[in-house]
Amino acid sequence: MTIAARYAEFAAREAYGVSPQYARLSSAVSGDETLLALLGTLPPAKTQPNLLFGVVRLLGGPVDDPDAFHDFTVTNWPAVEAEIRDRATQTNEAGRCAVLLPVLAALPQPLALLEVGASAGLCLYPDRYGYRYGDHLLGGGEPVLECTLTGAAPPSARPEVVWRAGLDLNPLDVTDPADVGWLDALIWPEHTHRRARLRAAVAVVSAEPPLLVRGDLVDDLPALVARAPAGATLVVFHTSVLYQVPEPRRTAFVELVRDLPGRWIANEDPGVLRHGTLPTPPGPALHNVLALDGRPLAWTRGHGQAMTWFG
Ligand SMILES: C[S@@+](CC[C@H](N)C(=O)[O-])C[C@H]1O[C@@H](n2cnc3c(N)ncnc32)[C@H](O)[C@@H]1O
Q1: Which of 181, 231, 232, 290 is most buried, taking the most CB atoms under 10 A from its CB?
Q2: Is 193 helix (H, G, I), strand (E, B) or coil?
Q3: Beta carbons within 10 angstroms of residue 25's beta carbon
Q4: Can you tell me the distance from the alpha carbon of 288 to that of 298, in angstroms, rounded to the nearest whole number?
Q5: Using an 8 Å Cβ cutoff, are 271 and 238 in contact?
Q6: Given the CA of residue 249, which atom of ligand 1 is nearest to it?
Q7: pLDDT tens string 76-109
C-alpha cells in the first residue's frame, strides 16, 4: 500500500465518524505531495498516521487545521522526524478490557494474566475497572468502560486476577509523566472521554504497578510464561499488537503461543491475524476479531467501544 493510500484508508476506515479532525487531516495528507515526500524518507513502519499525528501533538503542533498542520510539520520536520524515528505508537487503551471481559470472566478462575505488547499495562487490570454494557453495570469506581455488546449476554462478574505481567519492546511507566504525556498525545483530539479514562486508569495502575518486562514477544515470552504461578489459569493475551510485528515474526509468535500452556486470547485486525472464513463485519469501520485459542468469537471496535458476538 502506498503512503497516500494508507492515509486515505485511515481517514475512511479508522477515523471517519470517530475523529472528524483526524479524518480531515489524514485525507489532506493523502493528497499533500510535500508531506508524502517527507514521509517517504522514513522506514515503512514509521509512516503510520497515528504516529505522525501523535508526534505533532506531542510537540505542540496543530491537528485541527490541515493547512496549519502542513506548515508546522514542514517547518519543524527535523524535530518531527527525530521523534517519529525514536517512538512507536503505544496507545494503551484500558477500554479494550471491555471486549476481553466476556472471555476472561468465562474462564476457570482465578487468572494469571500475561499481556504481550502491554505498553504501560493498563489492560492488565480488567478486575479493577467498572463496566457498562447498555443498562448492565458491573463493578464500581473509575474508569467505567462503556461497550455496546450485541449477540451475547454481558458478563455477570469480573475475573479474579492473582498475577499480572506484561511484555513489551518498550514498556511505558505510568508513574513517569513523560510516558503518560506520550500516551495522552496518542489519544485522538476530540476524545476527551478517552483522556479522562487514561487518567483514571493510570491512577488505578499507579497504585499497584504491574510486572512489566522489556522484551520481544517471540524471544522472551517463554521465560515470562515460566514465571506464572501454578494454581491459576494462565491467559496470554494481546490486543492491537500484531500489526506492528512484521512477518515472519508474526507467524513465529502464533506458532509459539499456540503451544504454550494456558489459554490464548487475541484481539487483532483479521487482515493481520487471519482466521479463515468469518461472518460479515457489522459495518465498514475497521473491526478487530476477538479469538480464544485461535477460535474467532466476536467483532470488536478498536477502542473497546463495541463488540458483536458470533462465536
Ligand atoms: C498499539 S500498542 C497496544 C498496547 C495494548 N496492547 C493496548 O491494547 O492498549 C502495541 C504495543 O506492542 C508493542 N510491541 C510491538 N512489537 C512488539 C514485539 N515484537 N514484542 C513485544 N512488544 C511489541 C509496542 O511497543 C506497543 O507498546
Answers
A1: 290
A2: helix
A3: 28
A4: 8
A5: no
A6: 19
A7: 999 999 999 999 999 999 999 999 999 999 999 9
State the residue for C-alpha cell 463493578.
139
- Taking CA atoms, 311 is separated from 53, 68, 98, 253, in Å, by 36, 46, 17, 24
DSSP 3-state of 305: coil
Handedness of CA 15, 295, 117, 150 (dihedral sign): positive
Beta bridge partners of 291: 266, 296
Mutate to test the pocket of ligand 1, among 53, 87, 89, 119 (most ligand atoms within 8 A of CB): 119
Query: Which residues are registered as beta bridge partners of 306?
Result: 148
Task: Name the residue of 244, 254, 268, 301 whose CB sits within 8 Å of the most ligand 1 atoms, as the mutation to test its pocket.
Answer: 244
Cα(92) to centroid(ligand 1), Å: 9
Please provide residue 81's backbone torsions phi and psi, each rounded to the nearest 5 degrees. Answer: -60, -40
Tell me the C-alpha distance between 279 and 29, whole Å. 33
Cα separation values, 90 from 29, 119, 130, 241, Å: 22, 6, 23, 9
Say if ligand 1 is within 6 A of residue 169 CB. yes
By DSSP bridging, strand 161-168 and strand 111-116 are parallel
- Cell (9 digits) for 188: 485522538
168 ligand 1 Cβ < 6 A: yes
Cα 105 from Cα 34, distance rounded (Å): 50
Read off the DSSP letter of residue 76.
T
117 lines ligand 1 (CB under 6 A): yes
Give 204-251 pLDDT, tens digit per residue.
Answer: 999 999 999 999 999 999 999 999 999 999 999 999 999 999 999 999
3-state secondary structure of 112: strand
